[in-house]
Write a structure and sequence with these properties.
257 residues, alpha/beta, Rossmann fold, seven-stranded parallel beta sheet, 9 helices
Length: 257
């Protein structure tokens, strides 16, 4: 018998871990999931920010937890996963959103800065997926959503010097597709979202500096707003996407079209 479409998108009682969930795109996606009933576990390097966001999102009628976690640190990741499992008894959704960027010409890029970007954006995605997978695989269900970027789909002109960011986000897309192939047998769906230009703490300076240039390249004529990632995140976190895996959902106002 067919399931009602509203029920397909319902996340009541599900448990979602969102890395970098205290602000920006992570916070927006966390809010979207909570509005559909999901309990939230927010983690980021600054615990106070997570606690504040968790307190605010609790007003939506869901349970929330906040942890300090550096996604470059396997021990801290394991701790978040174990505490989530012991508190809720389940982990249904992981959104690998924590990210960083570093701008420098390729010929001048310091190895430490390259490594920091790759370790946060790509290795962190691997480590968290691995840790949560150990919980999801035996249960034969789960949703992993990796946050890539339109920067992972193609190169950028010379005025945008962030090769580590582009490489890491391209890596996230390949990682997503391969993990989808590996874990499909366990009924775990692994997908990515590739956002375009959203004004956030990380991107607002670049956007302000290049506002008119960027807008000319976006067919919808605007930047991403406070609601524009919610639907994509809810879709990929819910039963509505049970037959979707290895997919990159681009949310960019048509920029890459």
């Amino acid at each position: 018998m067919a399931v009602n479409t509203k029920k397909l998108f319902d996340l009541s009682g599900r448990v979602a871990i969102i890395t970098g969930g205290s602000m920006g795109l992570g916070r927006q996606m966390a809010e979207g999931l909570a509005e559909m009933g999901a309990n939230l576990v927010l983690c980021a390097r600054k615990k106070e920010r997570c606690e504040q966001a968790a307190e605010e999102l609790k007003q939506l009628g869901v349970k929330t937890l906040a942890f300090a976690c550096d996604v470059k640190n396997p021990d801290e990741i394991r701790d978040v996963v174990q505490q989530t499992a012991s508190r809720f008894g389940r982990i249904d959704i992981l959104i690998n959103n924590a990210g960083t960027a570093w701008g420098a010409p390729v010929e001048d890029m310091q190895l430490e800065h390259w490594n920091k970007v790759i370790e946060t954006n790509l290795t962190g995605t691997f480590l968290f997926s691995q840790a949560v997978g150990k919980f999801m695989v035996p249960l034969r269900r789960g949703k992993i959503i990796n946050i890539s970027s339109v920067a992972g789909l193609r190169g950028a002109p010379p005025e945008f010097q962030a090769i580590g960011y582009h490489a890491s986000k391209g890596g996230v897309i390949s990682f997503t597709k391969d993990l989808a192939c590996k874990w499909g047998v366990h009924n775990i769906q692994v997908n990515a979202i590739a956002p375009g230009w959203f004004p956030t703490h990380m991107s607002k300076v670049v956007i302000e500096r290049n506002r008119e240039i960027f807008l000319k390249k976006i067919p919808l004529g605007r930047f991403g707003g406070d609601q524009d990632l919610k639907g994509a995140a809810v879709f990929l976190a819910s039963d509505a996407s049970d037959f979707v895996t290895g997919h990159v959902l681009v949310v960019d106002g048509g920029q890459t079209a």
